Amino acid sequence: MELGNDTEVLEFILLGLSEVEELQPLFLGLFLAMYLVTFIGNLLIILATITSSHLHTPMYFFLANFSFVDICFTSTTIPKMLLNIQTHNKTITYQGCLTQMYFFILFAELDIFFLCIMAYDRFVAICHPLHYTVIMNPRLCVLLLLLSWILSVLDSLLRGLLVLRLSFCTNLEIPHFFCEINQVIQLACSDNLLNIIEMYFAAVVMGIIPLTGIVFSYSRIVSSIRRITSARGKYKAFSTCGSHLSVVSLFYSTGLGVYFSSSTTQNSRESAIASVIYTTVTPMLNPFIYSLRNKDIRGALKSLAEIVTLND
């Protein structure tokens, strides 16, 4: 990897959310607390689905995988940010930046795929309840899981290889708290048109198409719920997908807005601050949304707590 002046790129500089020194201890405490809540909350969801036999269904199988991906998603960015704040060192190596970029894209796209699959699962459960166990069989669930991983790994690898072909000039400052691919591409002094084309193509394939699937699933779900005559039946049908719909709304309303605006906005620091919502806040809130709106999860968490108490 060569610079415009034929010197090797050794490291980038992550400017973070603010250069005000007095705010750094506040950021350190805040993001450490958010990361711990995210890690513990999603880990509890995973343990609850594993230990409770009545949660061994396709819905909770994908929820457990979604929680695992959320842990990995935040772990690609927050620990490095905390380390930089603690050591007062804003640098990240070129190899470290590429690695962070690869895994960030990988887990972000897995999040998107799992949200789409979970919407399809709710569509089958509500619109075709008699055929649910036949359609959402274990083989299909594993196939959807593997397909999500394969597509995400391949796209992340492609985007990483396209970044490898870029040359960078003397300005290696990234106005972000992690190696966000849009910001890295903008630093290139070589032709980055292919990267930009691929970036928007990936946004359509990996973002808009799954979103279309989610919208289609919920449009059919709403139509089915409207045909239910009893109010209790309508509430029960909607309650099975209320948590997922809340997570979808939160993730897409923040993630897509930041993604499409980050390459055009003149204030990259504002874009970095907005990115905190979908990179940190959303994964932290997901366990609360599912546990507060889902009585099965609440019951499983209570049983898990009782098991831990008895073992102590």
Describe the structure.
The chain is 76% helix and 3% strand. By secondary structure, the protein is mainly alpha-helical. The protein has one domain: Rhodopsin 7-helix transmembrane proteins (Rhopdopsin 7-helix transmembrane proteins, Up-down Bundle). It has a three-stranded mixed sheet with strand order 2-1-3. Helix 1 (24-51) packs antiparallel against helix 3 and helix 4 (94-127) runs parallel beside helix 8. It is globular. The termini are far apart.
CATH topology: Rhopdopsin 7-helix transmembrane proteins
Helical fraction: over 70%
Shape assignment: globular
Q: How large a portion of the residues is in β-strands, by DSSP E?
A: under 5%
Low-pLDDT stretches are 1-7
Number of strands: 3
> What class do helices, strands and sheet pairing give?
mainly alpha
The biggest sheet amounts to:
3 strands, mixed
The largest beta-sheet arranges its strands as 2-1-3
Total count of domains: 1
Brief account:
With 312 residues, the chain is mainly alpha-helical.
Helix/strand layout:
Layout: E1 11-14, H1 24-51, H2 58-75, H3 78-87, E2 91-93, H4 94-127, H5 132-135, H6 138-164, E3 173-174, H7 181-186, H8 193-226, H9 231-262, H10 268-293, H11 295-311
Helix pairs in contact: 1-2, 1-3, 1-10, 1-11, 2-4, 2-10, 4-6, 4-8, 4-9, 6-8, 8-9, 9-10, 10-11
